[in-house]
Specification:
Distance between the termini: 38 Å
CATH superfamily: Spore Coat Polysaccharide Biosynthesis Protein SpsA, Chain A
Number of domains: 1
Number of helices: 11
CATH topology: Spore Coat Polysaccharide Biosynthesis Protein SpsA, Chain A
Strand order of the largest sheet: 3-2-1-4-8-6-9-7
Order of helices and strands: EHEHEHEEHEEEHHHHHEEHH
Length: 303
Amino acid sequence: MLAPVLIFVYARPEHTKQTIESLSSNYLASETDLFIFSDAPKNEKSIEMVKLVRDYIDTIPDKKIFRSVKIIKSEVNKGLANSIISGVSEIVKLNGQVIVLEDDLITSPDFLNYMNDALKFYENDKKIWSISAYTFDLEFPDKYKSEIYLSYRACSWGWATWKDRWDTVDWKVTDYKTFKKDKRLRDKFNRGGRDMSGMLDAQIAGKIDSWAIRWCYSQFKSDMFTVYPRVSRVRNIGLDGSGTHSGISTRYDTTLNKSTKKCEFDHPELNDIILRLFKDRFGTRFEYFIIWNKILIKKMLRI
């Protein structure tokens, strides 16, 4: 059995359509169970767009593209964080593993192959927290031969994990008071990006509502890694100002994999050069506050 795919959609019909269509072109689409979670409108502005999204996803089961399609429509607005936490918790309990997408992610044709192969390869490796399908275009060291690399930070743009990892997350971050005052811990958390401690502060202060920073924090506490591909299997099309959870940016543009060759997984060591290149993609703390405050305002307004 392949891992089920969960897609979380809201009020972007054109982005949702592109996400579904690219997934339907995957080599393993016909063998994959698809769960689509549709959040309810938060305000009157979003009613019509949510309706258009729901009208579209209602047509998917009729096309017989996937092994099965189940659509879950919320009657109340949960917001992205609660939608993902509750949706993943429900499905991972039944299946033991999940692959997760949002409504603005284009996947390569081998996305499902990459994800399922990685889930199988690393399932019993207790140093691996999650699998990312997205990656930056990085300049890898000449001597680095692996087709994947490790990072201290999880990714929310096309990811996968297992039930035993998901179940350990403390969504309330009950030890935050200790973390907040400990500079050593804060610096260590920021190994995955200079923005991480500040984002957790913003989450606890109620300035943002992010499941991902809490997911990353639990990874940090567990001292585990996320597997990234050298060549991305996901491209984000949502950083165009169109959505609740995005601003306008080309900062994270990447090249989508076109090769039909299967990814070869192994157990590489952490590479300091790659870790630095990865971390630098998140900029300085000053850049973080300029860029992310614009994005987070849109998140809070949910327009």
